[in-house]
């Protein structure tokens, strides 16, 4: 009996609602017989395997609250996934996703979505993506975004937004409407300016984080950053900065060049053994 089958049999025997199949060398859900009939499962961990395809039958697990598919070879997700009625935490980081399925924004109570280290961009998001109004944390780091759609302002409950290590050249002013935001990670992009509306947010407490390094900022922002985040936030709220920002936008200067070659990312080249 394989390691995975043994874990499943033991879980069935004691009616364990948490199934940990991390790093079991799993290539396919076909190696997990009976999984889709385990309706009591609330947590399913399948991280660090070699899974390529996620079958629609996963949506049978109607009591699932936490699904961890981190570090697999997944290229697409089934439409049915967003019908999981109780799913709160979904981790699909470190995979090969180029797109998200139509209707992906229909999760009724998703709070944490981790899509770190895939091949996603603004063109990958379905039309209803920003209807995920229950989201508290959204991790989009290490992808291929150049812009973030203005609809991000609809995610009113968002407290953590991670956009580091993309190709961002613009941040929408609507991020300034996310009044519960306490962490904003924008490091390692191609940003030169920030919308003044970022000044509406509160990054002054010890528990808050605003990360901005490794961007080609215009000189006024770079200068204020050297004095610290509180000084920068004051500057973003000033009439002086609004003038600087509008002048920069109206100048239509070319975007900074890409500085990282992403063609060799594991998410694009990795082969299963």
UniProtKB/TrEMBL annotation:
Q: Which GO terms describe its cellular component?
A: cytoplasm
Pfam families tied to this protein: LRR_14, LRR_4
**What is the protein name for this chain?**
Ras suppressor protein 1
In the record, what lineage is assigned to the organism producing the protein?
Answer: Eukaryota, Metazoa, Ecdysozoa, Arthropoda, Hexapoda
The free-text function statement in the UniProt record for this protein reads: Potentially plays a role in the Ras signal transduction pathway. Capable of suppressing v-Ras transformation in vitro.
Gene Ontology process terms (BP): signal transduction
- Identify the species of origin: Rhynocoris fuscipes
* Segments forming domain Disease resistance R13L4/SHOC-2-like LRR: 106-209
Region Disordered: what ranges? 252-273
Locate the coiled-coil region(s) and give their ranges. Answer: none
Supply the Gene3D superfamilies for this chain. Answer: Ribonuclease Inhibitor (3.80.10.10)
Keyword annotations of the record:
Acetylation, Leucine-rich repeat, Repeat
Q: Which InterPro entries match?
A: Leu-rich_rpt (IPR001611), Leu-rich_rpt_4 (IPR025875), Leu-rich_rpt_typical-subtyp (IPR003591), LRR_dom_sf (IPR032675), LRR_domain-containing (IPR050216), LRR_R13L4/SHOC2-like (IPR055414)
Q: Where is the composition biased (Basic and acidic residues)?
A: 255-264
